[in-house]
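Task 17 of the worksheet. Students: predict the tertiary structure of the chain below and write it out as structure tokens. Keep your answer in the requested format; marks are given for formatting as well as content.
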Amino acid sequence: MTTSTRGAGKAPAVLVLEDGRIFRGRAYGAVGETFGEAVFSTGMTGYQETLTDPSYDRQIVVATAPQIGNTGWNDEDDESGRIWVSGYVVRDPARVPSNWRSRRSLDDELVKQGVVGISGIDTRALTRHLRESGSMRSGIFSGEALAADDELLARVQAQPHMKGASLYEEVATKEAYVVPAVGEKKFTVAAIDLGIKGMTPHRMAERGIEVHVLPATATEEDVYAVAPDGVFFSNGPGDPATAEGPVALMTAVLKRKTPLFGICFGNQILGRALGFGTYKLKYGHRGINQPVQDRTTGKVEVTAHNHGFAVDAPLDKVSDTPYGRAEVSHVCLNDQVVEGLQLLDQPAFSVQYHPEAAAGPHDAAYLFDRFVSLMTAEGAQRA
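Model answer:
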């Protein structure tokens, strides 16, 4: 990525898709060039949390909501220490932010962090194209990076695909750290950072959990050195088929029958550890309005998603695995994609979406309570 100065409303810019489709608009944020997989997010709010979600590493995010930036940028809502998206595509950027928490404009923050964007294009047409043709490699070009269309297309087509990409180590913490419990400490959890969002350990801390966040390269010895009551595997970017290290660690945890909870990438890792395959979705689920049914209760939840891969597990039967019986616990009502797994003979479960809900609805917050219940039951059994 190369960047220079602020460009919103000034320099011309183009978005080039790998299939040759081109959208022309104006530079937004930094001026230069950037590459990534073009994906769309359907959330009407929460752009700050989206942009700072490590799961969006190497992706150019298209906002389907027509106006973005109304509430500016604050210093409280970041989900990590930086913006992770490769680029940002919006239709109508707010000219002046208006919110009591705002400290600067979204445009200014994109410039500050060197994120190349484009505005003023028909994001509805772009979203429909991605739905029909699938997420694909793309590039945003402005300023000195502009060139003939065929040259820009060649640059895009030279980029790596998301399928087969191993990215979780790029975004994970390099050093372990601790998020203390709020109030009385009740449990200790080892959380494997594969691209964790800041709200996730906070949700656990609210429930009296001291969270030890460990690097993606953590070993079984590292995990059990903190004497965990439970182990958590986080969300993260890239293709789960490349995550051999996390799968091996998950397998070790399952063998010990320690209470286990995974979300998003962690759900895919559990799927692989149980012997299921994973596959790339055509255009994925991204946004904060996805309907999911909890098949254990029949309840339908509105949930926050960010995933381009899914677990290939049977919906219509209980499966035998090396760790006992497993079943699909949650399913997306839009397309019947697996949205959760649970073991029936030991304390382990996962979901494909984001119960920490930053941003998004809080329908799935009970899943953290379910994790607490597993650790409580395990502790009582040991006692």
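Marker's comment: Residues 5 and 30 are 6 Å apart (CA to CA). The mean pLDDT is 95.
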